[in-house]
Design a protein that fits this description.
Order of helices and strands of chain B: HHHHHH
Largest sheet of chain A: 6 strands, parallel
Shape of chain A: elongated
Number of strands of chain B: 0
Strand content of chain B: under 5%
Helix content of chain B: over 70%
Helix content of chain A: 55-70%
Distance between the termini of chain B: 11 Å
Distance between the termini of chain A: 24 Å
Radius of gyration of chain A: 25 Å
Oligomer: heterodimer
Number of helices of chain B: 6
Shape of chain B: extended
CATH architecture of the largest domain in chain A: 3-Layer(aba) Sandwich
Strand content of chain A: 5-15%
Strand order of the largest sheet of chain A: 3-2-1-4-5-6
Radius of gyration of chain B: 27 Å
Structural class of chain B: mainly alpha
Largest sheet of chain B: none
CATH class of the largest domain in chain A: Alpha Beta
Chain lengths: 307, 218
């Protein structure tokens, strides 16, 4: 079948070869001091490296533009606006705020990010004079949470608002921790439950217990399997990528906004790649069915998967 | 310097781990393994901090006769009791044979595991109550959710043979359920995964390059 696109098989293959050669020339040289049989860069991961480099370049360009005063709009995220509302409600009711940072270890990026959000929440609760309870499942996360709460109180100019006993290590077992948090929800009846981080099977138990106590609930995770539970049981849910936009949304720092824009542009690139791939696969579907391996679809596919 | 040194360490460790992801060279893997081993040591030491926090807060509540103090006392008894039994079994104290974790295993399997299973089984009831609220058709979105949920649910359960057209309904419901899960649900999930992956990349770069510093003390 003759190629239907201007990008013929030979041209696209040449482009693919250029792509890999550029990667090889720049990166995949042999390491003289190491194992000569192994390349310096794994060939299967060069497309990932290109994506990261593209992301980094866009990030720095947008960041410099933002620093020069260019406005980078960011859409309204209801779940993030609700954080202040939840803390304000707790203050009015004279009841504490409960912050659950998920159950994973600190090496999980969602847990690290949860600690950054905790600092913002601690600043707000310190400003309002509202107690903040942070139960944790991991002892390393506990030290991070203590530091985040302490720093948040200092940001608010109220270091005395930090109560060390309110950062509580409960258990490193999933359901023992879950039972402990449910106990805090029932006994201390927080008016706001903020659940941000990595959650597993305990997500619905926590969210439903919080619902039964009448607390306003804001939950967020990038773990797609737990999102339906939070959507069903919580008042506001921060979904997927929104979760990683919290600090940029709250602080509007140019450096942080630059990464949001870079993520959006990379997403556009990924979507465009998907569309091109689907179109090429559809056009050359007969060739694919016949087992022909030198179509533009294969050349395009090889950009991402050199196998 | 209080901020600069941690940022420098973060950048160096982040770049080393990133390098080990891309490079199959033995030296990069050795650096990666070494850093992970350090991490394991830190995690082990930090475990003591967790126990310290638990004991400190429990003792305070016991001494202040907090309403929950009996639970806190029980917690400490179980914590140290289990620890003593474990150490005794390792060292063969009190006539407990060396290397045989009979009592420790008995407590774990007969007490702890059933308690974990009890907590997990609560999910069945919570799923029902959450689904009941989520599936109330009060808006277009909720109605769509209800319809999709009902179709997937029907596709998952066998249709009783006494139902009219049971075989045909069963066949179509399974195919419809399969379509919803394989195309509609999977497409939505993959969109979330893609967004989350880019968010992870953005956050990782922000931390490794020192742009995001809110995790550090001032």
């Amino acid at each position: 079948m003759p190629p239907l696109l201007p990008l013929g098989a030979s041209l696209s293959e040449a482009f693919a070869t250029l792509w890999w050669k550029a990667g090889a020339a720049a990166l995949a040289v042999q390491d003289v001091g190491g194992d000569a049989a192994l390349p310096l860069i794994d060939r299967n991961k060069i497309s990932t490296l290109w994506a990261i480099l593209f992301f980094g370049v866009v990030m720095f360009v947008v960041q410099s533009q933002a620093k020069k005063g260019k406005d980078i709009p960011i859409r309204r995220i209801a779940g993030l606006d609700a954080l202040d509302e939840a803390i304000g409600r707790s203050t009015e009711m004279g009841r504490p705020v409960l912050y659950v940072p998920g159950i994973d270890e600190i090496k999980e990026i969602q847990t690290i990010y949860s600690m950054m959000i905790l600092r913002h929440v601690a600043r707000k609760t310190a400003e309002f004079g509202t107690p903040l309870i942070v139960p944790v499942k991991d002892s390393v996360v506990m030290t991070f949470a203590e530091e985040a709460c302490k720093q948040g109180c200092m940001d608010a100019g109220r270091p005395d608002a930090f109560i060390p006993d309110n950062v509580r290590y409960l258990s490193n077992e999933q359901f023992a921790y879950c039972a402990g948090v449910a106990g805090i929800m029932n006994r201390e009846v927080p008016a706001a439950n903020i659940m941000l981080g990595m959650f597993f099977a305990e997500s619905l138990i926590l969210a439903e217990t919080g619902f039964s106590t009448g607390a306003i609930q804001v939950a967020g995770t990038a773990k797609q399997h737990q999102l339906p539970f939070f959507v069903a049981a919580c008042d506001y849910t921060i979904i997927g990528e929104e979760y990683f936009a919290v600090t940029a949304y709250l602080t509007r720092e140019p450096g942080l906004l630059g990464t949001i824009r870079a993520a959006d542009l990379t997403k556009v690139l990924a979507i465009a790649s998907l569309v091109i791939g689907v179109v090429l696969a559809t056009i050359y579907s007969q060739d694919l069915a016949d087992g022909v391996l030198d179509t533009p679809f294969h050349a395009f596919k090889n950009l991402f998967d050199p196998q | 310097m209080k901020r600069e040194i941690p940022i420098l360490l973060t950048i160096l460790c982040g770049l080393a781990i990133t390098w080990s992801f891309f490079s199959p060279q033995p030296v990069s893997q050795a650096v990666n393994d070494e850093l992970l081993a350090w991490g394991t040591v830190f995690f082990s030491v930090a475990f003591l901090l967790g126990i310290g926090n638990l004991v400190r807060i429990s003792l305070k509540q016991i001494s202040a006769r907090h309403p929950d103090w009996p639970y806190k006392a029980l917690l400490l008894v179980v914590l140290f009791g289990y620890m003593i039994i474990g150490v005794a079994e390792i060292h063969g104290w009190f006539g407990i044979p060396d290397g045989q974790n009979l009592r420790r295993d008995w407590i774990y399997e007969r007490v702890f595991q059933p308690l974990q299973a009890t907590m997990f089984s609560l999910l069945a009831f919570y799923i029902a109550s959450a689904a009941f609220r989520a599936f109330r058709a009060r808006s277009l979105e909720a109605t769509l959710l209800l319809t999709a949920g009902a179709l997937v649910m029907i596709g998952q359960v066998p249709i009783p043979p006494f139902f009219p057209f049971a075989e045909a309904i069963g066949d179509y419901s399974v195919r419809l359920q399969g379509f919803l899960m394989a195309y509609v649900n999977a497409a939505g999930q993959k969109a979330i995964i893609m967004g989350a992956a880019l968010g992870t990349l953005a956050t990782g770069l922000r931390i490794v390059l020192g742009i995001e510093r809110s995790y550090l003390s001032e």
